[in-house]
Amino acid sequence: MSSEDGWPDVPGDTTLTIRIPEADALVRAPFPAHITVLYPFLPAARITPEVHAELSALFADRDPFDLTFAEFRRYPGVLYLPPTPEDPLRTLTKSLRERWPEAVPYRGVFGPEGLDPHLTLANDEGPETYETAYDALERELRPMLPVTARVGSVRLIVTDGRVWEDSAVYELGRSPAPPAPPAPPTQPAPPAQVLRAESTTLSRRS
């Protein structure tokens, strides 16, 4: 992204996103197939252990779901796949926004609700070329549709202003595992055992 897009990435930006590896072969943009749940989320400096715990609980309260991608759609300069159904994705975004209302989708560039859920395939054509280019790309990719995917997790990713990297993965419908109980303290061997061990060692040396 760049400043011309209206929502430049800022170092420390975070995003909650869903990877769709089943669609990677269709993507012609310089990133893996994904659906954005909320961009931007909180700045990385605000992602504390408490926030991680809240995110884990929020997503654990939502069941995994299936998505189908069966048709092409376009924004100006963008070719994308709309997911079906949209409701599970909208529910995730709504839950996050209710908890963190300061996280406004796309910094408000597209209004308070942001964009409809979508999986971007290509976004590098300008206004004079994208219609023809995406007509050809649709013909190339159409035999690969429909794509179906099982969604079982949401990823938190963070950017340094240039590259996005995974920071955490939250499972849907699965409560975080409780911490393992501490190991019991090691008990010292009874004196008789110590003596026998020393005696065995001496006999082996002799």
Q: What can you see in these coordinates?
A:
25% of the residues lie in helices and 24% in strands. It has 4 helices and 10 strands. It has a 4-stranded antiparallel β-sheet. Strands 6-3-8 form a 3-stranded antiparallel β-sheet, with no helix packed on it. A 3-stranded antiparallel β-sheet has the order 4-5-7, with no helix packed on it. The protein starts with 13 loop residues before the first strand and ends with a helix.
Quickly count the helices: 4
How much strand? 15-25%
Q: In order across it, which strands form the biggest sheet?
A: 2-1-9-10
Tell me the Rg in angstroms: 25 Å
* Low-pLDDT runs: 1-5, 191-206
User: Can you give the mean pLDDT?
Assistant: 87
Indicate the percent of residues in helices: 25-40%
Bulk shape: globular
Given the helix and strand composition, which structural class is it?
Answer: alpha+beta
Q: What order do the helices and strands follow? A: EEHEEEEHEHEEEH
> Terminal Cα separation, in Å?
76 Å
The tally of strands reads: 10
Summarize the main sheet: 4 strands, antiparallel
